[in-house]
Amino acid sequence: MTQQLILDLLPPSPPSLDNFVAGQNQEAVQALRDCGPGRAVYLWGAPGAGRTHLLQSVASGPDTGYFHHHSSAQSLRDIANADQLAYTLIAIDNVESLDDDRQAALFALYNRWREVAATPQGFALVLAGDRAPLTMPLREDLRTRLGWDLVFRLAQLSDEDRAQALSSRAADRGLQLAPEVINWVLTHYTRDMRHLSALIDALDRYSLERHRAITLPLLKELLASGQPVNDNP
Question: Which stretches make up the Hda lid domain (predicted)?
């Protein structure tokens, strides 16, 4: 069985705040847990810091919506102009890539958010981009609004954080990973924690199928395929 087939059997778990490895970002995660109607949170950081994971997490419940730079501007305008709001939380990703029309729609949405913040119509706004608010390539009045409430810079996970997360994921499945297995994974595999977690799950199943202990040779056997999964081996 190839690596891709095995990983397809155990796709990454849906993003949630519980399966997000916070590292130095505990304060940001707590702010998202506490983010109720009338509050706004803006997250920024480099690719791989977990922005999309966090936004999809908070927008996975009922009465929430997840939007990004490919979502229609009209959908945001409809929310801003609705007589009765259908959302208690709206998450908007990749703010730095919004075109002029979508920026205008987000500007209107921010104004509606502020207007109804202290009313039963209040809703939460959670946004994310790749840089701090005042350096965003957006219209000036929108840059200002990004900083109206809470702003957090997301730090990248350290290798120690990832190693601890892999060990914890394995322990949850009754496994114990040798340090050489963890070190090899962190050096040769993707650094995305959702896929790293899926790899541990696949490795567990593969070891059961082969009736073999989890070792570095078994891991390499699992990952053997015609095409490398990691673009940066």
Answer: 159-223
